[in-house]
């Protein structure tokens, strides 16, 4: 079992050097402990009940832990009644207190910017979930999926949360209510529902008995194939999942997938990796949702580091959401071009299993709309021209059929690729092509020569084993390409 008994004081991470333009691999973040809790025993620190009881829940507590100007404190005081505040000591300890723009702080600590709405576009329910709610607490938008709001409570209240309207409710929801029964009954009666998202708030804050009510009832519905638990507990309070009873309950349901929510590489701590391993051992796949947040992860280096750390934890990056236009979160929202810029720097530069789908969850209940760089450059009846991550333009004939264009027309560039007398346009400084040194062997004896097309001193002919791309250089097309 992966333990994290060794605790470290709050320290700044050193900036890692780069070699040949590639960032060094950064290990998962170290465990941290804010000096305020330096004397807390390891047993208490690892107890989720102690973490919950000692969560920071007021601006009065914050001002003793972080520096604020008088104007900031006044503004935060006005915000205190607008949206709940809770930060477990574990998650708060990930903050660098000397950095007012620390990415962990931005996600968890209130900001005066939450009171601003310069565009007037921010909404309490930007995705119109309530309008697609046939019974209280259940959203049925996609034909085969339903979302259940099971609790208003979270271990930590993210400042950009889409569902602030639901989490504003205080206390309660511990017993099974008539609304809970109605949600389960609705799923029973609608056989088209194959996938149920159990969400909130955070369903892993529910008492085990109430969580069991949802899981056992959904498991018993034959047409439900998948139960997704939407939770940020592995990120903000992993100690909750140190409880084997909770892991056993989740695993025994058999249909459960975990949908968690890491936004920054510093959140991938040894504690978080420990609980991810426990969930995986119990048979639950883990997918990650990230939100693109200004100042938190809106740069390529941070996003690559996050995704690589998730792969180390065997957590599949699933979605990268554009931040929703929810009340109080406007200062987190980037341009869509920023998201596309980041996606451009992922495809081809890291493993495909580590690349999430960038989506806009559209207003008016339009659902998730994928956004991606444009890899389809042009097309004809015979072929398409595709662009890869290196900038190569490649002619691809999808169907096995004779060309209908007849004789190629004298034309250049992308148009020349579509005419079929060229297969690719290759940038002149392509590094991969430069690595393709001709490797040759001598017919009959397997020896190596010095270069393609040359003869050894004994007169044996040479043949290429890995030839460079051979492009047809018919005159008039003008598509000569450098092989580096």
From TrEMBL:
Residues 472-484 have a biased composition (Low complexity). Residues 140-356 form the Radical SAM core domain. Residues 101-138, 432-484 are annotated as: Disordered. The keyword Lyase does not apply. Keywords: 4Fe-4S, Iron, Iron-sulfur, Isomerase, Metal-binding, Pyridoxal phosphate, S-adenosyl-L-methionine. Residues 122-131 have a biased composition (Acidic residues). Its cofactor is pyridoxal 5'-phosphate; [4Fe-4S] cluster. Belongs to the radical SAM superfamily. KamA family. PANTHER family: L-LYSINE 2,3-AMINOMUTASE, LYSINE 2,3-AMINOMUTASE-RELATED. This is KamA family radical SAM protein.
């Amino acid at each position: 079992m992966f333990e994290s008994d060794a605790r470290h004081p709050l320290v700044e991470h050193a900036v890692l050097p780069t070699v040949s333009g590639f960032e060094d691999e950064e290990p998962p973040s170290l465990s941290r402990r804010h000096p305020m809790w330096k004397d807390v025993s390891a047993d208490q620190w690892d107890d989720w009940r102690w973490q919950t009881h000692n969560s920071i829940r007021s601006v009065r507590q914050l001002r003793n832990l972080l520096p604020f100007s008088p104007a900031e404190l006044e503004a935060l005081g006005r915000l205190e009644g607008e949206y709940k505040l809770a930060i477990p000591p574990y998650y708060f300890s990930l903050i660098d207190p000397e950095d007012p723009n620390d990415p962990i702080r931005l996600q968890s600590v209130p900001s005066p910017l939450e009171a601003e709405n310069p565009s007037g576009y921010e909404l309490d329910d930007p995705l119109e979930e309530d309008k697609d709610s046939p019974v209280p607490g259940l959203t049925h938008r996609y034909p085969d999926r339903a979302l259940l709001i099971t609790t208003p409570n979270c271990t930590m209240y993210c400042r950009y949360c889409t569902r602030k309207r639901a989490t504003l409710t205080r206390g309660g929801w511990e017993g099974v209510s008539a609304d809970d029964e109605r949600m389960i009954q609705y799923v029973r009666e609608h056989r088209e529902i194959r996938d149920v998202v159990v969400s909130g708030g955070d369903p892993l804050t529910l008492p085990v008995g109430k969580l069991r009510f949802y899981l056992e009832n959904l498991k018993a519905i034959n047409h439900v194939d998948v139960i997704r638990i939407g939770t940020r507990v592995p990120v903000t309070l992993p100690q909750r999942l140190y409880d084997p009873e909770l892991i056993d309950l989740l695993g025994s349901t058999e249909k459960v997938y975990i949908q968690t929510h890491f936004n920054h590489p510093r959140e991938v701590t040894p504690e978080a990796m420990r609980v991810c391993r426990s969930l995986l051992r119990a048979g639950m796949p883990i997918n990650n949702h990230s939100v693109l947040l200004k100042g938190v992860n809106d740069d390529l280096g941070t996003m690559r580091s996050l995704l690589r750390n998730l792969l180390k934890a065997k957590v599949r990056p699933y979605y990268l959401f554009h931040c929703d236009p929810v009340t109080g979160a406007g200062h987190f929202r980037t341009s869509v071009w920023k998201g596309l810029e980041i996606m451009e720097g992922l495809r081809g530069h890291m493993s495909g299993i580590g690349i999430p789908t960038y989506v806009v969850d559209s207003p008016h209940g339009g659902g998730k709309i994928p956004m991606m760089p444009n890899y389809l450059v042009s097309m004809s009846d015979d072929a398409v021209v595709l662009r890869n991550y290196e900038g190569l333009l490649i002619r691809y004939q999808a169907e096995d059929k004779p060309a209908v264009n007849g004789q190629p027309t004298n034309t250049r560039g992308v148009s020349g690729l579509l005419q079929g007398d060229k297969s690719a346009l290759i940038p002149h400084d392509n590094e991969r092509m430069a690595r393709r040194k001709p490797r040759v062997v001598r017919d009959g004896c397997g020896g190596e020569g010095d270069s393609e097309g040359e003869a050894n001193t004994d007169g044996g002919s040479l043949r290429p084993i890995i030839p460079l791309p051979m492009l047809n250089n018919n005159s008039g097309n003008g598509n000569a390409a450098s092989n580096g």
